Structure formats: C-alpha cells, structure tokens
Amino acid sequence: MSEFENLMDKLLEQKSELTKEDIEEQIKQKKEKIGAGYLTDQGALFLIASDYGITLSEPLKIEMELKDLYAGAKEISLETRVLNLSPAKQFSRKDGTPFYLRTMTVYDANTTASVKLWDEKANLPGIENLKPGDLIKIIKAYVKSDLDGSPTINIGSGSNIEPVNTESEIPTIDTITKDISELEEGQKDLVISGIIDGIISGMEFTNSRGKPGKALRMRLKGKDGSAMRVVLWGKDESSIPNMISQSAKVRLLGVKVRSGNQGLEIHGNDATIVEIEGGKQTEPVIVRVLSMLTTDNGKKMILAVDNKKNLYNISDLTNSTSICVEGDVIECMPSKIYGNSITLDENSFVRKLDNDESIPSLSQLRTKINDVKVDGNYCIESIILKVPERREVQTKSGESIALSEMFVEDDTGSIWVKGWRNQARIIDKCELGEIVSITGLNAKAGLEGRIELFLTVFSKIIKKN
C-alpha cells in the first residue's frame, strides 16, 4: 500500500460519511482551484483533511530496499540482515558534550549498506546479542551521505531496530561467503573464507593524527592455493583464539579488497568479525631448533621443526630458550600458537629433551632448488653465483625500502634470494663463491612467472666455507 493510500484510509476512518469517490472529486477541485503544477494528489489530501479539522500528521514508514536508498530519505523502514557490528564508541561534540556511535553493516539480496546508531540507540537493549545473518527490521530511519558519497542509514531518537523471526528471501551468511580465490579489487562489505597460511601477528603504530593504533596481520590461502595478505585495522590478538592449528579455517565478515605493494590485499576494521577454528588452551609442542638469531631489540627468533616436518617460527620474548642451542630438541608450552607461529613469554615454559631421531635435522630438511614451489617455506644450501646487490625501491606511499638480492645455485637449479629492509643487511654480508645454508625462506612468484626466495625475520644465513 502506498503512502497516499494510507493517508486516504486514515481520512475515511475519521470521516465515515465520505466515500473514496467523494475525496477524489475534492482533490480534483483543489488542484483546479490552486492551479496545475503546484499541488500533488497527496498534498491536496492534506488540505482537504485540514478543511474537516483533521490532521494527517503521523509520519508513515516508507518500505524500500537497500539499492533504493538515497541521501535525504526520511522515515524509511526496511528488512535486512546483519553482516557485522562494531563496538559502541564515545566521542565529543564541538561544545564538549559526549555522544555515542556504533556502526553496523547490513545486507539484502542486492547490496550492502552502512548503519550508524547514535547516542542512546548505540546501546539499544539486545543490540550486543545481534549475530551475523540475523534478520532485523529498521524502523523510521533517515539517510545521509557518508564521506565517500554512499548513502548511510542513520538510527536516531525516533528510529528503532527490531529482530524479525520470519522466513526471508535475503540470503544467509553462508550463501554470500566468498573463497579467497574469488576476490577482485574494489569489492567491499565481503564475507570471505580461507585457510591460515603462515604467521599471524599483531602490530602497533602511531596514526596520521598522532594517536596509537593497532592491527592484526595474517595470510590466508584459497581453494586454488593462492594466498592473500590480510590486515585488520583496530584488531589485536584478543579477538582470536590462543591455539590455532596450521591450516585452520578462517572466515572474516565485513572486509574489502584493495591493491597493496605486493598484489591484492584484504583489509578490515574494528567492526570486522573474525571466526577462526581454534581453542583457548594451548598444547605443548616438541620441536628441533634449526636456527636461532637475536633481533636489534633483543628478541630471539627461532626456526624449528616437529616430527611431521612442520616448520615453526618461534618468537621468544623472555629468553626462555637460553638453555638450548641449534640442533637441540625442546618441549615448550607456549602462551599462543597461531598456525606455524609460536609465542613464548613469561607465562610459557621450555625444557630441553634428549635427542629424538624422529625429528629431522637441518641437513635432512633442506630442499633442492628444483623442488621449491610458490608459497612454501624452505631451508636450502647453495653457492652464490652473483655478487649481492642492493637497491632502494619506492613504494606507492612514497616510502623508500632497501632490497638486496643474490643469485644462488645447487646441483638441481638456480634461484634469486632477496631480502627487504633488515633482511637486506643479511644478504649484504655475503660474497661471490661462498657456500651458504639459508633457513626460513618463503617462496613467491616473481617476474615472468619465475619463483624467487625471500628472507623472513626468522631467516639465518650460515657460511659453510
């Protein structure tokens, strides 16, 4: 039923002696009297109601879909599903008075939209219980243009959100989930799935406004084996389990795809919902230490391997591994295990074990260059065929980054080994003709489809001659 028909019914309810035909005739007379081009049927209806002493002032809900949103729309109502929900944040107005704001992303069968909940609406009863995929009714909202020009739904003092417990044609979260391999640049408000590929780490920084910030970084692999870097701004390790196995399944709700320095990247924010297979309690790990090095800030970075030839990157924050040397077998109870990344801190313990022949040594673990495959992690032994070279690479943001590279070979083939930033300094110390053992290398696709090996923070180069 249209808004005009609703108004007509309200007038007929209060003036039962009138018929619909009577009112339509009066509308015609009103428009003829005032003149063409100045009055709509609905406007004439308001004037007629006023003549009878009736006020049609109750605002009506206008039902629409997300694709029909436009800046300036008022009193809208729509049915949609929740994609994600941010925490409520407190801000200050220009006059210093505080206000609360919570953002939410919603979707229907056609598109997505951002929702802003203001002041007391940011803490509506039950709002914290909303889950991704929940069906809701947004009532009497208004639409404004966001900073990027897109229409944004605003929930103010006269608006409301109600859960809906009926069937809907709006697809479920599972239906709209995309695999990493399906992503394209520019997509936003996505639900994506993948598998943990390598390290998960937290990052702290100072933003452009001089305020501290945080982010969670990881890599996810798709069904086709392709991997993509993920940065979740405003998130930290408190949002993920302490125990995450290698190749754990991950789903991220509310992310976008953009171009980074090394291809497409997935970016999220504090409203992004992170679902990772895992548990709160960690389990002891028995590994052999392959290499150990100490960073400039005194943190020990250790590459280790278990009896299934799984490589682990161990960050020792409290020097717990001072009892062991390269080649030792240790048992450790970490505070966190994220895929192949292990963190040792004051809540962890480490003990040295007797040698276990079932755990391979570094010499048994080395890979021939001809067997290196993209996205794998490797240890190699080779001879340097070209004098290491350093150059400065300019990023899209204007930052200048050091890159060093050298060409190496074993009896199966040759390959480029490269190092960025601090890892560039490690390569700089190498010389033509040296035989070197290199641990902790990551293989990536380079120019013209050739595979290249890159040093990581866990890499170590040991000269053999």
UniProtKB/TrEMBL annotation:
What's the superkingdom here?
Archaea
GO biological process terms, alphabetically, are: double-strand break repair via homologous recombination; response to ionizing radiation
- GO molecular function, a single term: DNA binding
The protein's matches in InterPro entries, at most eight in alphabetical order, are given as:
NA-bd_OB-fold (IPR012340), SOSS-B (IPR051231)
Coiled-coil annotation reads: 1-33
Keywords assigned by UniProt, alphabetized: Coiled coil, DNA-binding
Instruction: Tell me the protein's name.
Output: Single-stranded DNA-binding protein
Organism per entry: Marine Group I thaumarchaeote
Source taxonomy: Archaea, Nitrososphaerota, Marine Group I
